[in-house]
Amino acid sequence: MKQLILLIWGSLFLSGLLYAQSGLEFKGKAIQNAGYSVYVMGADDGEIIYSTPQISLSTASVMKVVTTAAALEILGADFKFRTQLGITGNVNRETGILDGNLVLKGGCDPSFYSEYFPEHYKGTFEAWVAALAACGIKNIHGNLVIDLSRMDESSIPGGWLWEDIGNYYGAGVSALSYSDNYYKIHFAAPEASGQLVTITKTDPVMDSLKLINKVVSSDIERDLSVVYGAPGSFSQMAEGSIPKGKLDFIVKAAMPDPARTAALQFIKVLKTGNIVLSGKIIFRSKPDDEAFTIIAEKLSPALKELLVPLNQESINLFAEHLLRETGLAIKGSPTLNSSLEALTEFWSEKKIFLQGFYPTDGSGLSRSNALCSRTLAEVIRYMYLSPNRDYFFNSLPLAGRSGTLKASFKGSKLENNLRAKTGSMSRVRSLAGIFTNQYGRKIIFAIITNNFEGSQASVSHLIEEFLNQIYSLDTTAGKSVAK
User: Fold this and answer.
1) pTM greater than the 0.85 cutoff
2) Taking CA 28 as the corner, what is the angle to CA 50 and CA 8, rounded to the nearest 5 degrees?
C-alpha cells in the first residue's frame, strides 16, 4: 500500500514537473472565472498530452462533431435522401386526365433546393412536370397531396431560444424541407439613423405571411435585426436595426411552413407546364395504404458531400436532419427522443467517454446540450481511425482558409494545417479538431469555454495562443502534460 501511494505521488510530481517545465497552461483573464474543459491527445496512440478536469459544459456548434461523425458511420458516406413524386388512381391517355391524386412524398432531404447545391436541384420541378407530361397527364382531377409521414414530430428541439427560432439558423426540420427552410426579407433603410425601415419584398413571396416590421436604421454597420415567429405560424415580427442608407439589405428568416412553400412553388411550375390541378393542397402526416405509382424522384447529394457545407458553414438544419435520420436507422423512429437515444447508444457501444453527456439536439443550438472535451476528442480520434476519416476531416473548416476558420490562425504555423469545428453563442466558445505539430505528430484537441469575460474574439485569441504552444511543444511519447 505504501509503495502504491509513493507511486501515485511520484506520478503526480512528475506530471507537475513536466507541466512547470513546459510552461504550458490554458489560462487568461477572459477565463479566470469561466468554466472550461480541455483535452489534448495523440491521434495515433491516444496518449493524453494535456487535460483539465473534465466538467460538462454547453457546447454550441461543436456538437455537430458528435452528430456528423455518427451519421457518417451509421448511414454511410454514400447515403442519399429521396424525394418522390407519384400518383394514385388511373390516367386516361386519350383525355390526359388523372382520376386520382398527385403525391409529393417528402424524403427528409435537408438540401432540397438548398443554396449550397444550386446546380444539383436546378430544374427539378421542371423535370417532374416533364415526367408527368410524358405519362400523358394534362389534367389532375384530384388533390396535390404532400406526404409528410416520414417526419412525425415537432420541428423544433426543446431548448431552442425564442430569439433563434424565427431566424434562418433556427429553422426546424421538415419531411419536405425547401430552400434551406428560410426566406429573404428585403429592407430599404433611410439615410438617417433611428428611422423605421421599409420592407420592399420577400423572396419567395408568401401571400399568407403577416410580417410586423419594427426594424430601424442605425449607424452600426452590421445586422442587428431579429425575427420572431413560431414554427407553422405565418405571423412574424422583425425588430432591431440594420445599417442606414442600405437600399436592399437582406435578412434571412425561418419559413413558417417549408412544405407549403415548396408545394406552392411546384404548382407554379405545373401551370407553366400547362398541367391543370383541379383540387387543392392536402398535407398528410400519417402514411396510408393507397396504391402509389412513382413518376419521378430526386436524390440528394451523397452524405459525404452534405457534410462539407454542414461543418464548414455550421448549418443547423442539416445537422438536425442527420440526427433524425440516425434515429430512424437505429431505432426505427425519427422522433427527437429516439434519435438522441440512438446517438448516445452508438457512441456508448464505441466505448467513447460519455460521462456528463447530455444531448438535446444535433446541432448545438440548444443551450441545454452539455458534454466534456474528452468526449469530443475521443469521437475525433475514433474518426481518425475510421475508414471514413478523409470524408469527416475534409468536411471540417481549414484554419485560415475555409468556413468558420477562414479568418483564424492567420500567419501562424497552424494556418492551412489545423482542421476543426467551431462553436459559438453568447458566453460559449469551443473548438475541436486536429493538426500536425512541428515534430510531425498528429494532435487531437477539444476546448470548451463557458461564461467567459470579454468578447468572443478575446477567447478565440486565447485558444489560438494555446494551440500554437501545443504545436511547438515536444509531445513525443512519455512527455505528456496534465493539469
Assistant:
1) yes
2) 35
